[in-house]
Amino acid sequence: MKSKMTLTLGIIVTLILIGFFAGVLSGLVGVGGGIVIVPCLVFFLAFTQKMAQGTSLALLTLPVVILGMLQYYKEGHVDFRLVGFLALGFLVGGFFGGKLAVSIPENTLKKVFSIILFIVAIKLYYESTSTKKAATKNVPAQEIKP
Predict the structure, then answer these.
(1) Rounded mean pLDDT of 95-120?
(2) How far apart are CA 99 and CA 68, in angstroms?
(3) Half-sphere exposure for 86 (CA within 13 Å, toward CB)
(4) Which tens digit of pLDDT belongs to each residue from 134-145?
(5) How far is Cα 19 from Cα 67, in angstroms, rounded to an integer?
């Protein structure tokens, strides 16, 4: 489905700013751009939840991901031994998640999305304030035996 939105200069600037903000946050904290892009498209440009999610997924193409990943790789923060296993699960999960997302009602999808964001935010906040627990919980990738 194609958006019926008229592309005015204001909308184009808003889209560029949303993309820039999402790109900075993705590179800074390693979150997927969708966590920023989807809510921004819904709130600032009145996208439906499904249109925002679909647009966000279309944006997250391989070249965009590679540019961000290269910065981490240069500093030695990418363990390619683990990437293939994560990618396998991600591909299968993405397929089924997409099928589910387009089949459930819009309001249900918004609720699921917001609950996930809320849980992640609470967990990250709790871990950042509990440095003792967070420090003992993280295992460096180098210590994972193949």
Answers:
(1) 91
(2) 28
(3) 6
(4) 455 555 666 665
(5) 14
* 44 vs 17: CA distance, rounded Å: 11
- Would 53 be classed as within a structural domain? yes
- Domain housing 23: 10-135
The tokens describing 106, both together, are 């819009």
Entry pTM: 0.68
How far apart are alpha carbons 79 and 62 in whole angstroms? Answer: 18
What is the rounded CA–CA span in Å between residue 29 and residue 36? 12
Residues contacting residue 8 through CB under 8 Å, at least 6 positions apart: none
Residue 16 lies in a domain: yes
Asked if residue 119 is part of any domain, the answer here is yes
Measured between alpha carbons, how far apart are the two ends of the chain, in Å?
44
**What is the sign, positive or negative, of the torsion defined by CA atoms of 28, 34, 37, 40?**
negative
Count of domains observed in the chain: 1
At 61 the three-state DSSP class reads coil
Q: Which of helix, strand or coil describes residue 30? A: coil
pLDDT at 50: 92
Distance CA 39, CA 114 (A): 9
In this predicted structure, the answer to whether residue 62 has a pLDDT above a threshold of 90 is no
Q: Please report whether residue 99 resides in a domain.
A: yes
